[in-house]
Design goal:
This protein is of the alpha/beta class and 596 residues long. It is built from 22 helices and 15 strands. Among the domains are: 137 residues, Rossmann fold, CATH 3.40.50; 199 residues, 3-Layer(aba) Sandwich (Rossmann fold), CATH 3.40.50. Strands 4, 5, 6, 7, 8 and 9 form a 6-stranded parallel β-sheet that branches. A 5-stranded parallel β-sheet has the order 12-11-10-13-14, with helices on one face. Helix 16 links the parallel strand 11 and strand 12.
Length: 596
């Protein structure tokens, strides 16, 4: 019994040791069994060359031979199991290796294919007849850099599949502008500026930064029309922001005078001979043509020698202006009005921070600020208390003409800024991934928790405040116009500009981006979009249906070239500064010849 017990134990131990699931300690000793001999235990090593089988008699030897044959047979069976196991492992390893090689081949092929596509894109861009990019030194990083940035997005893993890659690439691509070019240079037969002047114009540029910018451009044009000398404009310090910044704080005033020396005489101050003259104050009629200034204002200037325009905004019509004057307006806006060095440098620094790892970014003009909501009467998704606060503000501002406004009707007509939530839905529906880097071109959003939806869906949202230290922002404290200038620079150089309300900042930036090779600008169809949002919220359409309709709705609203739209009344026309074509952007001869 002792002998059988030992054999049994050895068999069990042998089975456990050779089991791939056995986690105990393993030895390299051969199998053995024990038997008693003269009250001594003798250990016999089966299959061990060091332990020859001891002589035994008759039945004992026979029994031992039978047992030895049994163990040997068992060992053969165990060895066969080992071979099967090793064969199985080999097959698994081979299949795994094959899969890795196949994956590597697919990835290499995909990247190679992408590189070829990007190279073709780069070649096509580099072969284009690029427009003049000298204005202000705002050099847009196009051509090979754009292609390299797209490739970097692919290889960095931002695009998860071929379909995602196609959608992502399409999102960041610019409209086709190859048949259009800038055309604002002085003509060859341009007459030299006459030193004689009909008088001096003093200007108070009213409104916020971009409203003042438009007004300054118009006043330079008016000075040209009347052959007058323009004194460096003064800026509005009584607007909502109460910014005390002067012209020299915001703009490079020496560059301004130097750039316009062949067009208009601009002086820093009135000459001593005219300093004692009492200026004649006049408010020019809005949306006027050149004839108004020649026939009605010029005689007054000649009589009084010094005239003071109390307002400068919208004092010149969008259309029906001589071509030379339209081009001059653009030379002022895109070449002469360069921001001061501190603003330029800080803006470029923020651009560098937004382009972390050479990634693209979207500039979002989210005009969901208290003053704009009060002015427009829009309070969708705000509380009753917040709505009342906006109404009170509207009544307190005397020059705001509209007081009682139906915010619901205005929203459905497309007259309200998109809410942060609506903006998030728009971005998602257009296919922007959640990791999109967004620069916020706006002040603080109004309403408790109003930014939650947007920040939850797009966590990489930045602003001049979040990208800067307190020390960097100290020089611009209480200077909102200077901060707006910094935002202007970052928005102008963004890969995509999206605005949620057609205010002066939106007009200024989109017009400048059109002039600079039609950089991609998304102009939301607010009236139809908010109706789709309401249907989505009411469960009348699915997300996929909503997404499809939004894409179709904005297919032709990405900043591609088109002729400025005229209106029945000047106020209803598209702004010249939002779309300077025709006037400052012309079709190339190749396109004109093809169309004829």
């Amino acid at each position: 019994m002792a002998h059988n017990s030992s054999n049994s134990t050895a068999a069990v131990d042998g089975g456990r040791v050779n089991s791939p699931r056995y986690l105990g300690s393993m030895t390299r000793r051969a199998h053995s069994f024990k038997r008693k001999n003269n009250n001594h235990e003798i250990e016999l090593q089966i299959n061990s060359p060091r332990s020859p089988l001891a002589p035994a008699e008759g039945s004992v030897l026979k029994r031992n031979n039978i047992h030895h044959h049994h163990v040997s047979h068992k060992e053969k069976r165990n060895k066969f199991g080992h071979w099967v196991f090793f064969l199985f492992c080999g097959v698994c390893f081979f299949v795994g290796l094959l899969k890795i090689c196949a994956t590597a081949w697919w990835f290499r092929s995909s990247v190679h294919s992408t590189r070829e596509s990007v190279q073709e894109l780069s070649d096509s861009i580099n072969n284009r007849n690029l427009m003049d990019q000298s204005s202000h030194g705002y050099a847009h990083r196009e051509g090979a850099n754009e292609a390299e940035r797209t490739l970097k997005i692919v290889t960095a893993g931002m695009i998860d599949s071929h379909s995602d890659m196609a959608e992502e690439s399409g999102i960041w691509s610019n409209p086709n502008y190859e048949n259009f070019t800038q055309c604002i240079d002085l003509s060859r037969n341009h007459k030299k500026l006459d030193a004689k002047t009909n008088g001096y114009i003093l200007v108070n540029a009213n409104g916020g930064l971009n409203q003042m910018r438009f007004g300054i451009c118009d006043m330079v044009a008016v000075a040209k029309i009347m052959k007058a000398t323009l004194v460096l404009p003064s800026l509005d310090h009584t607007s909502y922001w109460g910014d005390a910044s002067g012209f020299k704080d915001l703009f490079d005033w020496k560059h301004f005078i130097e750039t316009l020396k062949d067009d208009v005489q601009v002086v820093e101050t009135l000459p001593p001979a005219y300093a004692e003259i009492e200026p004649f104050s006049k408010t020019p009629i809005s949306w006027s043509k050149a004839s108004y200034y020649k026939n009605e204002v010029l005689p007054v200037l000649k009589q009084h020698k010094v005239i003071y325009f109390t307002h400068s905004d919208s004092r010149l019509a969008n259309n029906g202006i001589p071509s030379s004057i339209q081009k001059l307006r653009c030379r002022v806006n895109y070449r002469a009005l360069k921001y001061s060095s501190p603003i330029e440098e800080f803006g470029n620094k923020l651009i560098s921070r937004m382009r972390q790892n050479d990634s693209p970014y979207l500039a979002l003009h989210l005009r969901y600020e208290k003053d704009m909501l009060a002015f427009t009467g829009c309070s969708h998704n705000l509380t009753a208390e917040e709505d009342e606060e906006l109404r009170q503000m509207r009544y307190e501002v005397g020059h705001w003409k509209e007081k009682e406004i139906n915010g619901t009707e205005r929203r459905l007509a497309g007259g309200c800024p998109l809410t942060p939530r609506e903006t998030s839905l728009l971005l998602r529906a257009l296919g922007f991934p959640s990791q999109t880097r967004i620069y916020l071109v706006a002040g603080e959003s109004y309403g408790r928790g109003s930014m939650k939806y947007l920040e939850d869906d797009f966590p990489n949202i930045f602003s001049h405040s979040s990208l800067s230290s307190k020390e960097e922002l100290n020089p611009y404290k209480n200077h909102q116009n200077m901060l707006a200038g910094i935002d202007y620079i970052v928005a102008l150089q963004s890969d995509i500009f999206l605005y949620t309300y057609d205010g002066n900042m939106a007009k200024a930036v989109q017009g400048h981006r059109r002039f600079e090779n039609f950089k991609k600008t998304i102009n939301p169809d607010k009236a139809n979009f908010v109706k789709l949002v309401d249907k989505l919220d009411e469960g009348k359409i699915s997300w996929e249906k909503f997404r499809s309709k939004v894409k179709i709705l904005h297919k032709d609203r990405m900043g591609a070239p088109y002729v400025r739209e005229r209106g029945e009344f000047p106020k209803l026309e598209e702004s010249f500064y939002a779309n300077p074509m025709p006037g400052c952007i012309c079709e190339t001869k190749t396109r004109l010849e093809t169309s004829q």
